[in-house]
Amino acid sequence: xxxxxxxxxxxxxxxxxxxRCFFAPGRVNLIGExxxxxxxxxxxxxxxxxxxxxxxxxxxxxxxxxSANFEHKGVIEYNLDNLVYEEQHDWANYPKGVISxxxxxxxxxxxxxxxxxxxxxxxxxxxxxxxSIELATAVLLNQLEDLDIDMVEMVKMSxxxxxxxxxxxxxxxxxxxxxxxxxxxxILLNCQTLDYTYSPLxxxxxxxxxxxxxxxxxxxxxxxxxxxxxxxxxxxxxxxxYELESLGDLTKAQFEQLKHLIKNPTNQKRxxxxxxxxxxxxxxxxxxxxxxxxxxxxLMNESHRSLRDDYExxxxxxxxxxxxxxxxxxxxxxxxxGAGFGGCTISIVKEDKVNSFIAEVGAVYxxxxxxxxDFYVVEVGEGARELALETV
Length: 392
Fold this sequence. Notes:
Elements: H1 2-13, E1 20-29, E2 41-42, E3 44-57, E4 62-67, E5 76-79, H2 93-104, E6 113-119, H3 129-144, H4 151-166, H5 173-180, E7 185-190, E8 196-200, E9 206-212, H6 220-239, H7 252-258, H8 265-289, H9 293-309, H10 315-326, E10 331-337, E11 344-350, H11 354-369, E12 374-378, E13 385-387
Parallel strand pairs: 4-6
Antiparallel strand pairs: 1-3, 1-13, 2-7, 3-6, 4-5, 7-8, 9-11, 9-12, 10-11
């Protein structure tokens, strides 16, 4: 595939100059949903699918960008001295935002470049294609200009680009998992402190299967803000009788002792999810460190029930997919992943049952919802990096 992308680059930009190739993966969160803004932990891994970039330095200040995913948009062109958000530049605002953020943080870029991007992350599936193109851009800038910036710094600048240039107030999990991912490892990350540890994700005779509901996620943003404020109110109530910084500070036992302080029963349910999910996420690390994949699967199932019953962010489509998965032979665990109200599920499935899993879950889902789900079998991959030309 890289050979084809290089050939396409040469056609689009009319050049035979030497190119360099970069890759940044997508990511999926195994467990730890809606915990990040509650002072808790997340447990993502990088995937084998992602964003490829073929790039060649220029001698002037011009930047030309082309996406093989949005060919109808053609080549998007601008100068290093004019890095502003432009609606008509569409997808190119993400890499442009990273370039702008690098300069804002004092990293001088001497020359422009030509770049072709291609992503094999399904669009809108909640696997973080925006953070993937941001990290691909960060890594190529770092390498092209010999800037010697460490990965955590590039992760922070990519998040800053999305927050400030694009105007999306995302947390840091996506960029962190994509930048810092390792093959066959999941990352336990505290999103507040950025403390992290790796756990072995040895799937042996099983694989990760992502299923996309293909439901438009109209409610996700408004409900996300609503849940945040419900958790904030629960925290304020708890602080009236107990000293704590965030819901993530509490154990399950402490929460049960203190929950009477939370006046509103709905807010109490939201806080329960945040506390219990954070504990499940830490338990997941213990399970994986002990090679207990079945134990991880049970925690994933519990996570989904909590997101459905206490946090109420699943919805008919995600529940239909997960419940159909639970009924299949060879399923170790399944849950929604991401913000909810559409998007994706993540399942761990025995390798020899994958074909029947996809066929049967797909049929049950269509019957229940009238929608077609898309399925992706993915591997746990390395984080953002330059690709050696001899391997492409």
